[in-house]
Amino acid sequence: MKPTVNLAALALVVAVLAMPGCVPDNSGIEINAAYDEIDANCVATAGGMVEKGGGYLDIDWTSRYFLALRVINNLDSSPVPVGSESIPSARNDFFLHEMELTYSCKDTRDRCAGFPKYGPVVVQISGTVLAHNSLDMPLDVMTYDLTQKLLDFSPIVDDGLTVTMLVSIRLRGAFNAGGGNFQTTPFVFPIQLYADPNNLPPTCAPGESLQDPKTSGVKPAPCHNFGQDGSIGVCASLTGT
User: C-alpha distances in angstroms, 103 versus 1, 54, 159?
Assistant: First the structure.
């Protein structure tokens, strides 16, 4: 099966909820891979995407980290008879409702000492993964509250170290046929956290904002999220002049 992109089914809501009860795993729905092919308008770009094995985040610049998660629905979409015709079955279409994020430190004992205890947290999302199909879903896998705690984390802020954080991601939802809620098995993504005191965000003048550098070959920051994976913003006029 060749994964396809269904961006029309995508909507993202960033409200943090209380932790849910126990939800069973379903191997028919899985997070297959992560990509960073997200444009400045937060749209996952189709075609030629290279799988992403990890990322970098300067916490002085941003409290967000965007990934395009490829969610695959392995369940059957065989046609069902309707009168004299057959139509594709929608009973195994999967409606995504929530994303659960759990954070942990994966580094030396000294670097992980005092790592903030935070999570799991649950974020509302909305998307549909059609049966025997896939969805590339741009999602923010950080939270503002976590970043505020990290800004007090001494190994990064005081000692200038880079610390590896693991983000464990689960997606939850329900099938069109009903039967209750199900979730994916955890998908773990490593992010290298750091704070560079020699590369702080600039303070823009009135009428200016942080924008992508107009330099040939420089990839735009995903969702204008400067500080992700080495991206930086420069102050420029809001009118582009």
Answer: 32, 14, 21
Checking 145-151 for CB contacts under 8 A at 24+ apart, the result is: 145/16, 145/118, 146/63, 146/103, 146/116, 146/118, 146/119, 147/59, 147/62, 147/63, 148/63, 149/116, 149/118, 150/59, 150/116, 150/193, 151/59, 151/195
Domain boundaries, the chain: 7-237
Q: Which amino acid is at 231?
A: S
Give the span between the Cα atoms of 68 and 142, in whole angstroms.
Answer: 13
Residues near 148 by beta carbon (within 8 Å), at least 6 away in sequence:
63
The pLDDT value recorded for residue 35 is 87
Query: Which of helix, strand or coil describes residue 87?
Result: strand
Using CA atoms, how far residue 40 sits from 72, 80, 89, 212, 220, in Å, is 25, 41, 36, 9, 6
pLDDT per 10-residue tile (average), the chain, 241 residues: 38 37 76 87 74 93 94 84 72 94 94 91 95 92 93 90 96 89 95 92 92 77 92 82 48
What is the greatest pairwise CA distance in the chain? 72
CB 35 within 8 A of CB 70: yes
Assess contact for 67 and 52: CB atoms under 8 A.
Answer: yes
Q: The pTM is what?
A: 0.83
90 in helix, strand or coil?
coil
Torsion angle, alpha carbons of 91, 28, 45, 14, to 10: 80
Tokens of 232: 């930086």
